[in-house]
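FAQ: What does the model actually see?

It sees only this:
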Amino acid sequence: MSNLKNFLFTSESVSEGHPDKVSDRISDMVVDTYLSNDPYSRVACETLTTTNKVVLAGEVRGPEIKKDDLINNVRECIKDIGYDQDGFTWKEATKIESHLHSQSSDIAMGVDSSGNKDEGAGDQGIMFGYACNETDVLMPAPIHFSHKILRLMAEDRKSGKLKNIEPDSKSQVTFEYENGKPSKVKSVVISSQHTANVNQEQVRELLRPYLINSIPKNFLDGFNENEFYVNPTGNFVIGGPDGDCGLTGRKIIVDTYGGAAPHGGGAFSGKDPTKVDRSAAYAARYIAKNVVASKIADKCLIQLAYAIGVSKPLSIYVNLFDNDLDKNKFVEDKIKESFDLSPRGIREMLGLNKPIYEKTSAYGHFGREPDKEGAFSWENINKSDIFLK
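And it is asked to produce this:
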């Protein structure tokens, strides 16, 4: 985020019904299906969604999963999201194709352990983790509240409390920062698919409570009503995969820190935890969050770098944004002493060989509550004492 003291900063979120998020959800369902049958399955699944069609493609290695079972699971994902529209439905009108095939033997050779060789990273690349004390979950305020607006809308839509609103929605929150800290909300945008029998003023009133109930009152003091934008195009009846083609992995900034921190470029959804694009990004967030939770710094950025087939990270970078070189070196040394950042070490540390990924596919992979099934284990702050001097 900016080194300026006073500035505006904006982040967006998209709902589980956004076509790209429908694709992410389905790809992560495929990962969970394989891991449920064999915790050491390998999956790299991409999904395309468009008008009454879903296409799965990618590589897998693991148990034999019947194509019909996968297709039924796809329909359950679509049904749970809430799509039963003429252009996209969980029913038979939507055609589902699976083109998953066996993982490349060249990739398998680099990733698998053998003899004295530990498991290698599933690909080269750089991964970032970030945390800051702007919110109680140690996430940047703009992305945190953008997610919250849409998450509450989805809960009420599914329960029947919020009527005439359809699954495809987007939000965007702009904060004013003073002295480097979020001080108040400057503007909010909510765009949501709706039924044809409501006009835009009615949609505005349906969605207003999600602005008020999602953002703390102190951030909304003096908020200008003219800065609340609802469906700025004027109509949003056609939506979801019928309105726009969806692809796995196109919402990488939504999935992480809303642009407040760098991104290595690798998507998460559809990948098993041998892929460091996913697992090392989770580990980097875990470390960064524990650093900030220790109160040694107000914010922390971690970068990890890997090479395909190589076990250990090639580099570890730490930035505490306070120009204290000794403290940065202290944190870096503690990371090297206390965390096994090999692919196997990360999976064991965070318990990633579990079917926990479908629930990560919308409303962000970070800033969530760890659950009893093991999802969001990287959000625990059980290592913060390591960084106490």
